Amino acid sequence: MATRLTTQDASFYFLEASTTPMHLGSLAILEAPEGGLDYEDLLTHVERRLPLVPRYRQRVREVAFGLARPVWVDDRDFDITYHVRRSALPKPGSDEQLHDLVARLTSRPLDRSRPLWEMYLVEGLANNRIAIFTKSHSSLVDGAKALEINQVILDPSLQPREVAEELWMPGREPREAELVLDAVAEMIARPSEGAATIRMVLGDLVGEATKAIGNVAAVVRTAATTAPSTPLNATISRNRRFATVKTDLDAYRTIRAKFGCTVNDAILAVLTGALRNWLLSRGEPVIAFSSVRALVPIAVYVTGEGTDEAFDPEVDPAERETMRESAERRVYSWMIDLPVGEPNPVVRLSHIAHASEAHAKQNRTVNAQTLVRMSGTAPATLHAMGLRVASGLSQRMFNLVITNAPGPRTPLYLDNAKLLEMYPVSPLLRNQALSVGLTSYDGHVYYGLNGDRDAMSDVDVVASLLYEALEELLDASK
Question: ω before 92 within 30° of 0 (cis)?
Fold first, then answer.
């Protein structure tokens, strides 16, 4: 019997529209090894790791008349060369040219007749670098049974891990009559499931996604009002712009040591400063009480005693391994009003630190606020989990999504190529002109800014203002 998509997987599948492709992107920049990493090398490496992510060889098949949620079926015509592709920049390719390419690739929806993922090897980058850009549909990655492919193709050393070879043979695809009979039987046995599927097909996606992630209402009651009116919420097109920011993790540690906050508080304060100056650059009215409401999915460890430990870049790997043995890893979400109206960077940081501390205390006593369980610590999978939380909420509740997924503190490798930088490319939700993804890796914090091409034509301005906001807080730390 074919595996049916979960309610939330299906909601992602049906949520996709021409202006909101629901795939999660990941941009990895690597140092080209001696002899290079050519297309055939990457193809072989990925094919060896596919047994670790079996859903990447399955496609979605819908049930006739929308009688039930779609099912996962093996792609009998699976062609690895269709999914792993080759691209190049005119040598010597600049970062700006790479960002333009990523924006164009992000704008294109995935082919629904095939497994919902693509990977691009981008050659021609300056300074002996190569890039790999990956797109995985959000319905494909649940963080538990189905991981994001970057979680399995990267290794912690130059010596690739051993993966048992597998002779893959696609399973038999069910006939249409079988799917219909199964759907009718399910509707009789569980009428509520059938009603939910019909609502989903008819467009009640937010409601079904919200139910799928459980106790989300307990969290969003804190947002009693709609989000402030800002240029971040606008009708969006199908085209995108992309920008990146690379910062040193030590800079946030300096801010933390001076003001007694967390690294995550410092990151949110830097974002707040950049958004404030961006609004001013647009001539938007910014008054003392102006704010931007952000939805911030956070990874945590939940112990048997019911206490949550923030999963941030500062956790030592050995300590993290100990926590892993005695705690579950989950993603929960909270909303914070970023004080863009406050001109003083230290006061902005103080407001954010108090808000996050109050939320952390509340979360430790209310375990029902945990929304999504997750497995693995790869940043791309964590970002996928954060998106699942955000998509289940009304976009009227917040202005933008900020996903912050800590990554490894030591270098990673793809075959014999060292990973230099990693940037998340989070999708835009309806009427959301900007999404911000952050990943810490090997002593740095990487920002990926995905914006609508028309509504956020100045996304590169936000990127430059992030550097300025960080410098402003560092100067205040002296």
Answer: yes
Pairing of strands 117-125, 417-425: unpaired
The 10 Å CB-count burial string (b at 16+, else e) for 66-101 is: bbbbbbbbbbeebeeeebbbebebeeebebebbbeb
Which whole number is the average pLDDT over 438-461?
A: 95
Q: Which of 448, 457, 20, 78 is nearest to 238 (CA)?
A: 20
Residue-wise pLDDT tens digits, 383-401 = 565 565 555 555 578 899 8
Question: Could you tell me how far CA 433 lies from the centroid of its own chain?
Answer: 16
β-bridge pairing 308-310 and 292-303: antiparallel
- pLDDT above 90 covers a percentage of the chain that reads 50
Residue 295 has pLDDT above 50, yes or no: yes
How would residue 217 be classed by pLDDT, with cut points 50, 70 and 90? very low
**What burial letters (b/e) apply to 435-474, b meaning 16+ CB within 10 Å?**
bbbbbbbbebbbbbbbbbbebbebbbbbbebbeebbebbb
The closest alpha carbon to 434, from 353, 358, 338, 341, belongs to: 338
For the whole model, what pTM was predicted?
0.85
**CA–CA gap between residue 457 and residue 450 (Å, rounded):** 11
Please give the mean pLDDT across all residues of the chain. 82
Angle ∠(152,129,79) on CA atoms, nearest 5: 45
Phi, psi for residue 450 in degrees, rounded to 5 = -105, 120
Q: What share of the chain is helix, strand, coil (3-state, %, to 5)?
A: 40, 25, 35
Rounded Cα distance between 261 and 253, Å, is 9
